[in-house]
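sry for the spam today, last one i promise. C-alpha cells for design, 382 residues
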C-alpha cells in the first residue's frame, strides 16, 4: 500500500473554529497527507466565522456551545447524515483527535465497518477538573479516556514523556511518537522588535517574562500570577508580557497589576511578540507537548517550565532553561530570578534553545503519522 492509497477520515472536536496548537498540528498533518496524494475528509463542529480556513474537505457535525465557555463547541454525535457521508467516502483509516461523543460514535462506526482507528492525544483532559474545583472526578475522566483509547488500534502522542504517562495509565500498548514542528519563517530570534516593545511601554533594558496562550485557568494562570508576586517580594527586576486572550483575561489582569497585555496575536505578529520577550514562563501541566514552548525556544528565549509532560521532553534543564516541579510558585521564582539579572545566562540558554528547535522539521514529523496510518491499514487489509 502507498500513501496515495490512504483514505483518511478525521474526527476533531475543534478543527478550525478557534485556533490552538492541536488544530494547527492537525491541519498541517492533513495538508501533508494531501500533498502525498492521500484522500482526506474531516468531521468537526463548525461556526459561521471560523478562525481560519480548514485544510481538506470539512463536514459539519452537530454541536452546542459549552456553558461558560461559549467559544468552544461540544460535538453531539454522528447522525445519519454524517454516517452516510462516511460510508460514501469509504475511509480505510479513521483518526480521532478529541475524546468527545462524536469520537466515541465514530469508533463504533469504524468497528462495525472493519476500519482501523488511530487516536492522537493532544491534551491531558483528565487534569482539567482540578482547575474548576472538581479534582475528585479525575479518576472517572481517566477511566472514560481509557475505555475510548483501548477501542482504538493505536495511539500517537507528541512527546516521549506523554507516551510514558499513557502507558502508566494503561491507555494502550501501541503508542508511537508524533511530535511537533515549528515554522522558522515565523518564530526566530531575529523577529525581535524593540520599537514594538517601546509602543507597549517596555524599555529596551526591561526584562520581560512572557506568558503565551489562551487565558484560561487550566493553563496555570494562578501559578504564573503567584510566581510574579514572589518575584516582586524578592525585588527581582522584571516586567510581564502577556500574549493571548480568553475568558480569564479579567482575572489575570487583576492578578498582574502593571502587566503588559498584548492581546491575541497570530502569524508574523505572534512571532514578533514572542521574540520581543526575554524569558518564557510556562507553568501549565495540561499540555502533552507544548507548542508554545518550542516556539519560544525558536525565538531564542530561555524557558522556565513545569517539569511535566510536554516541556520535559523539550527543555534541557540547565542548558536551554529550567524545569521546575509543578505547582510551587516559590520554586518557579527561584528558577526565573537568575535570568532576570544575568544577561549572559539569558543569552546562552536562549541560543541553545534556538539551536535545538532546528531539529523539529514538520514534514519528517508528519511522515511518522503517515507510516502509522499505512501500518494499520495494511494490517487490516492483509
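last one done:
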Amino acid at each position: 500500500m502507498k500513501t496515495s492509497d490512504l483514505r483518511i477520515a478525521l474526527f476533531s472536536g475543534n478543527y478550525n473554529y478557534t485556533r490552538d496548537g492541536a488544530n494547527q498540528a492537525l491541519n498541517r498533518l492533513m495538508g501533508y497527507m494531501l500533498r502525498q496524494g492521500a484522500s482526506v475528509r474531516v468531521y468537526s463542529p463548525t461556526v459561521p466565522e471560523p478562525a481560519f480556513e480548514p485544510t481538506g474537505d470539512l463536514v459539519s457535525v452537530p454541536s452546542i456551545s459549552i456553558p461558560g465557555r461559549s467559544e468552544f463547541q461540544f460535538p453531539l454525535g454522528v447522525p445519519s447524515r454524517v454516517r452516510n457521508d462516511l460510508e460514501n467516502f469509504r475511509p480505510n483509516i479513521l483518526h480521532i483527535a478529541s475524546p468527545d461523543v462524536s469520537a466515541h460514535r465514530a469508533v463504533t462506526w469504524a468497528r462495525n465497518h472493519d476500519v482501523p482507528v488511530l487516536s492522537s492525544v493532544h491534551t491531558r483532559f483528565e487534569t482539567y477538573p482540578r482547575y474548576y474545583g472538581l479534582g475528585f472526578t479525575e479518576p472517572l475522566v481517566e477511566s472514560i479516556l481509557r475505555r475510548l483509547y483501548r477501542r482504538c488500534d493505536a495511539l500517537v502522542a507528541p512527546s516521549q514523556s506523554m507516551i510514558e504517562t499513557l502507558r502508566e495509565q494503561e491507555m494502550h500498548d501501541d503508542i508511537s511518537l508524533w511530535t511537533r514542528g515549528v515554522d522558522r519563517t515565523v518564530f526566530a530570534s531575529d523577529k525581535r522588535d524593540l520599537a514594538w516593545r517601546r509602543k507597549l511601554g517596555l524599555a529596551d533594558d526591561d526584562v520581560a517574562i512572557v506568558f503565551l496562550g489562551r487565558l484560561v485557568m487550566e493553563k496555570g494562570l494562578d501559578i504564573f500570577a503567584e510566581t510574579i508576586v514572589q518575584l516582586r517580594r524578592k525585588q527581582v527586576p522584571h516586567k510581564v508580557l502577556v500574549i493571548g486572550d480568553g475568558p480569564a483575561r479579567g482575572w489575570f489582569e487583576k492578578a498582574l497589576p502593571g502587566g503588559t497585555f498584548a492581546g491575541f496575536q497570530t502569524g508574523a505578529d505572534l512571532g514578533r511578540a514572542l521574540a520581543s520577550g526575554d524569558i518564557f514562563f510556562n507553568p501549565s501541566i495540561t499540555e502533552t507537548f507544548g507548542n508554545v514552548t518550542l516556539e519560544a525556544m525558536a525565538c531564542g528565549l530561555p524557558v522556565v517550565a513545569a517539569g511535566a509532560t510536554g516541556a520535559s521532553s523539550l527543555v534541557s534543564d540547565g542548558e536551554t532553561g529550567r524545569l521546575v516541579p509543578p505547582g510551587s510558585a516559590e520554586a518557579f521564582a527561584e528558577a526565573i530570578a537568575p535570568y532576570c539579572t544575568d544577561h549572559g545566562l539569558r543569552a546562552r540558554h536562549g541560543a541553545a534553545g534556538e539551536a535545538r528547535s532546528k531539529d523539529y522539521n514538520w514534514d519528517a514529523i508528519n511522515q511518522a503519522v503517515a507510516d502509522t496510518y499505512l501500518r494499520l491499514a495494511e494490517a487490516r487489509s492483509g
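The mean pLDDT is 91. ok im logging off now
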